[in-house]
Amino acid sequence: MNRDVTDEAASKEMDTSMCMSPSHDHNPENLPYVHKVGVPRRQNLLKQFTASVKETFFAGNPFQPFKGQSRLGKFVLALQAVFPIVGWGKDYNLARFKGDLIAGLTIASLCIPQDIGYAKLANLPPQNGLYTSFVPPLIYAFMGSSRDIAIGPVAVVSLLLGSLLQKEIDPVKDALEYRRLAFTATFFAGITQFTLGFFRLGFLIDFLSHAAIVGFMGGAAITIALQQLKGLLGISNFTRKTDIVSVMRSVWGTIHHGWNWQTMAIGISFLAFLLLAKHIGKKNKKLFWVPAIAPMVCVILSTFLVYITHADKHGVQIVRHIKKGINPPSFKEIYFTGKYFGKGFRIGVLSGMIGLTEAIAIGRTFAAVKDYHLDGNKEMVALGTMNVVGSMTSCYVATGSFSRSAVNFMAGCNTAMSNIVMSCVVFLTLEFMTSLFKYTPNAILASIIISAVVGLIDVEAVSLLWKIDKFDFVACMGAFFGVIFASVEIGLLIAVSISFAKILLQVTRPRTALLGNLPGTAVYRNILQYPEAKKVPGILIVRVDSAIYFSNSNYIKERILRWLTDEEEQLKKKGLPTIQYLVVEMSPVTDIDTSGIHAFEELYRSLQKRDVQLLLANPGPVVVNKLHASKIATLIGESKIFLSVADAVRYVPKTEEP
Amino acid sequence: MNRDVTDEAASKEMDTSMCMSPSHDHNPENLPYVHKVGVPRRQNLLKQFTASVKETFFAGNPFQPFKGQSRLGKFVLALQAVFPIVGWGKDYNLARFKGDLIAGLTIASLCIPQDIGYAKLANLPPQNGLYTSFVPPLIYAFMGSSRDIAIGPVAVVSLLLGSLLQKEIDPVKDALEYRRLAFTATFFAGITQFTLGFFRLGFLIDFLSHAAIVGFMGGAAITIALQQLKGLLGISNFTRKTDIVSVMRSVWGTIHHGWNWQTMAIGISFLAFLLLAKHIGKKNKKLFWVPAIAPMVCVILSTFLVYITHADKHGVQIVRHIKKGINPPSFKEIYFTGKYFGKGFRIGVLSGMIGLTEAIAIGRTFAAVKDYHLDGNKEMVALGTMNVVGSMTSCYVATGSFSRSAVNFMAGCNTAMSNIVMSCVVFLTLEFMTSLFKYTPNAILASIIISAVVGLIDVEAVSLLWKIDKFDFVACMGAFFGVIFASVEIGLLIAVSISFAKILLQVTRPRTALLGNLPGTAVYRNILQYPEAKKVPGILIVRVDSAIYFSNSNYIKERILRWLTDEEEQLKKKGLPTIQYLVVEMSPVTDIDTSGIHAFEELYRSLQKRDVQLLLANPGPVVVNKLHASKIATLIGESKIFLSVADAVRYVPKTEEP
Fold first, then answer.
1. Could you tell me which Gene3D superfamilies the record lists for this protein (chains A, B) (predicted)?
2. Fewest 10 Å CB contacts: which of A25, A160, A429, B642?
3. Res. B86: pLDDT tops 90
4. Which residues of B touch A598 (CB under 8 A)?
C-alpha cells in the first residue's frame, strides 16, 4: 500500500516536471526519468593531477592576486607575501599606533616576569627567557600575518624542551653543553616549522585533534604547576621527574626539614593576590589590565620586601643575577655534527611541532574573531624563520602565548606593531634594568607561572567534549593522564595515537544506513532517524556513507550483504515477500578505488546468486567515471544506475510485486 | 525564472503530499514542510559504546547463533567455531571425498617440488620445505574455514624470510643458528596472526591496499625469478643481495667462467616445457591438470636423465640429500631470550603479516566465487595456530599459496580435506621417497619456481589500476620498483606509506561540491556532473562530502568560505545580486566531532559578518544529536535546519529577491 503512495506521489511529481520541461522527449513507459545520471567528460590526466595538487597544497590559492599584474606589481605582491608588514605598514597611522602602544606595554609588563620563570622551566638562565622575548617578536612582526598573537617563550614548550633536554645533558653540571643543545633544538624547531610551511604541509598539524590538545595542555599545566611547588615551598632537593607521583613524593618527603616558611608566606600570599586579580579580570572584561599588570606589581613589591627584610639571608631563594645586555650571538654554539646533532634534531622537531600547534591555534582563534584570513603555511614560515634567527641569537623556542595573546587582543592591539613595542621594552630591560631583579624571590616567579598556567586548564571545553563526542573525551583524558602520570612525551604520544586511531576507525568502519520513504514525498531517509519513514516492500535501500577505498571496501560489501540477510530473515519470520531489489544509495560515496570496484563486482555476483538485482542511485562524478572505466557499469547494466533513489524505486516494475 | 520553476514544482509536490497525508496538521504559511528533521532519542552511553565496539570488532556478529541454545548446543557451536571440521565433517560423504582426493593428489604433486625449491629461497634445507607442507595443512584442515585454500610454504614469504634472516645470520656458516632464528621468526609470525585474529584486529591488514599488493607481488616475483638465474645458469658465486642491479652484475660478471652449459640446457628446456604446460592450462580450463602435474613430471624426467648421464659429474648441481623421516620437534630451538629473540620477533611479525595478507586475499577470493562467508578473524586464529605448531615441528612460515589454491579449486576440492590428502602424500614422501630426489638437478627446481612465480605478475590488474585510479597505479609502481631496485622490505615500506598517504589525503582534503537544481524537479545535484543543473539566485548550495573531523574541519570551513568568495566575485563581475543564503547540504556528513562543531560556529560567525544566512540541509542522526548537544543548533536556529535542500530553498522568502 505504501508503495502505491510513493508511486503516486512520484508520478505526480513526474507529471509536474514533464509539463515544466516539455522540450525533453522521452517515452514515459520505458524511460520515466527527466534527467539521466551525468557522466562528466574525463579530464586530461595532467589537469586532474595539477588540480588535485593545487587543492591539497595550495588550498587558499595564494597565487591568484599575482595574475594580470605588472612586474613591479608582482614584486610588491611577493614582498608583501613574505613581509606582510609592507602591506599593513602603508596604511598605518597614529590612531592604530595608540592601540598597539598600550597593548605592547601591557604584554611587556606581563612577559618580563613570565620570561624569567619560563627560562627556569627550560633549565636555562633567566636572561635567555628575556632574549627570547626580544629577537623573535621583532622578526615575527615583519613576517607574520596574525594581528593579535603575542610572541615569546611559553610555559608548555619550555617544560617540554626542559624535560627532553635534561634527559640528555645535566643542566647544572654541564650548563654550557646544555645551552648549546638547547640552541641546536631551537634551530631545528625553526627549520621544521619553516619546512612544513614552505612545502605547504601545514595540514599535518591538523592531525593533533582539538580534544587531544585540550587534554595535553591541561596535563602540562598541572605538571608545570606541580613543578612550581619547589619554588613556592622553598624546597632545595627536588626531583627531576615531572610525573605527579614522583613530584608529590618529593614534596611530602621534605615536609619536615625542606620547606621554608618565609618563602611559603611570600609565595602563597602573592599567589592569592594574582588569582584574585585574575578573578577580577574575568568578572569585568574592562578590568583586563588588572591581571595583566599584577605580575609586575608582585615582582616590584616582593623584590622591595626581600631587599628591606633581608629575607634572602633566611633561606628565601632569589634570582640573584641576570646578565646585562642584549642577546649575544650563538650561531657557533649550535651542534651541526656529533652525537648531539641527532638529539638536538629530534628534540627540535618535537618542540617545533608543539610550538606550531599552539601558535596556529591562537592565530586561527583571533583571526576568526576579527574575521580576517590567516594562511597557516605562511604563518609557519614566519614562525620558523624567527626561531632559526632566535637560535643564532641565544634564544630558545618561541611561539605564540595563549595568555599574552588574549591580553594583547583585549588591550586593543591593531597590528603586529604591539610585538615591536613589547620587544623594545624588553630591550630596555635587558640594557638597563636587569640588576633590579636581583632580589626578586623565586617564589614570586613560581606564583606567576602557576597563575598563568591555570588558564590552560579548560574545564568547560572538557565538559563540552563529554557532551558532544565521547571519543574526543577519551582522547582528551588519555593525553591529560599521560602527561600527568608519565611524562610530556608519553602524553603527546597517547594524544597522537588516539587521534590516529579515530581516523583509522573512520576509514575502516564507515556507517551505512537503511533508508525508507517519507510518506507523501519522493524523499528517502535513514529509518533510524525518521521513524515515520517506510520501507518499500521487495526493495532494500542501503546508503553507504563514505568514499569506498581499500581500507573499507571489504567491510562495506559484507555490511551490505549482512543488511540483506538480516532483512530477509525478518521478512521470512513475518511471512512477507522477500527482497528482489537492492538499491545502493551512493550520494555520499565521493570516490572509489580499484579495491572498491572489486568489492562491487563481488557484491554484484553474490546478489546474482541470491536472485537479487543491484540498482545504484546517484553516484558522483568521480564514481561514475570509474564505474565506466572499469566496465562494471556494463556488468551491472547502464540502465540500473539512477539519478536518485526515487527513480530507482520507480524503475521496479509493479508486476513483480506479489 | 528558474526559482519559480523550482518553487512551483516544489509546491505541487507539496500539494500532492498534503492530499496523501491528511493527518498532518500544519499551517502551510509558516511551516510548509511535511517532515521535520528527525532528532533521534539519545542512546544510553553504555549501549552506544557496546554497539560501536560490536560493529568495529564483531562486525559479523559471531555470537548470534549462540542465542537461545542449550548448554550442549552452545558447546557444540563453540567447538564448531574453533574447529569448523566438526561442522562440515557431519555431512561429509564419499562423493565429496572423491573431489577432495583428486584435488589433494594434484596439489601434492605440485607442492613437493615447489617445497624443495622454496626452502632454498629461505636458505633452509629441502626437508624443511616438505615439513612445512605436512604439519601446517593438517592443523589448518581442522581449524580453517576456507574450503579452497592450499596451505604450505610460498614463494614470496620464503624470499622475505630468507632475505631478512640472512641479514642477521649467515645461513651457510652458522646453519644451526640460522635455522633456530627461522623457527623463532615462525613462532612469532604465528603469535602475531593468532593475536590479530583473537583480538579481532583483522581489519588492520586491510591497510595494505590491493594496488600495493599487486605491485609488491609483481616485484617479489621478478626478484625471485632473478634469484633463480643462479640455479638455472649453474652459477656458484652468486650475490646475496636481491636488488636487480646487484643480481644482474653477478650474472654478467660470471658469463665467461661461471655458467654451466649442461645445467643451462636442462634448466631452460624444462622451463620451456613448464611454460608451455601453463599456456595449455590457461587456454583450456579443462586441462588445468597439465600445468599441475608438469613440475612432478619434470622432476622425474630430469632426475632420471641426470642419473643415467652422470651429469652431476659435469658440474650440474643436484639436490644430493633430503633428510628422511617426518618433522623432528624444534620447540627447544626457538630463541626465547638473548639478542636473537628481538630479531626473531621483528622478522616474525613482518612475515606473519605478509603471510596473512596473502592467505586472507586467497580465502576471500574463493569464498566470493563459491559464495560462502569467511570470517577473516577466525581464519587468522587458524593460520596463527598452525604456524605456532609449525615452529615447534621444524616448519617455517606457511600460508595459503595462490597457484596451488587455484589448482585445488579447479581440481574440484570440496572441503579442507584436500589439504589432509596432500599432507598424507607429503608424509609418505618424507618417510619413503626422499632418496629418490638425490639426483634431481637444482636447475629444475629453479625452472619450477620461475614458472610458478610468473603467475604473480598481474599485468591485467596493473592496466586496470591505471585505467581506474591513478593514485592506486602510483602505489602499485612504488611497491614494484621498491622491491626490484631496493629490497623486499623497502618495497613493503613504500607500499604501506603510499597506502597511508592516500588515507591521510582522504581525511584531510575531503571533496565539496556546488549544487544546482535539476530543472523541473526538486533534486539538487553537483553542477560539474550535471551541466543542466541551475544555480538558485541569491542562494549558494554547498555539499560537504565527508564526516567532519579535526583532521578536516578547518579545511572544510575555509573551503566553504572560498566557494562563497569566488561566487560573489563572479556575481559582482556580472552585476548580479549577491548571495544572501548559504545552504550546506549535509547528507554525506555522517559524523562531526568537537573540532567540527567549532568550525561550524566559526563559519556561522564569519557568515554573519558578511550578512549571509546559514541554512543546513539533512544532517544525519549523529550530527543532529551533536548539533543539539553543543547548543549550536540554537545558535544557528532550529528553524534553519531542513530535511532537504529543496525545503531549505523553499524557506527563502521570495520577497527578498530583487
1. STAS domain
2. A25
3. no
4. 210
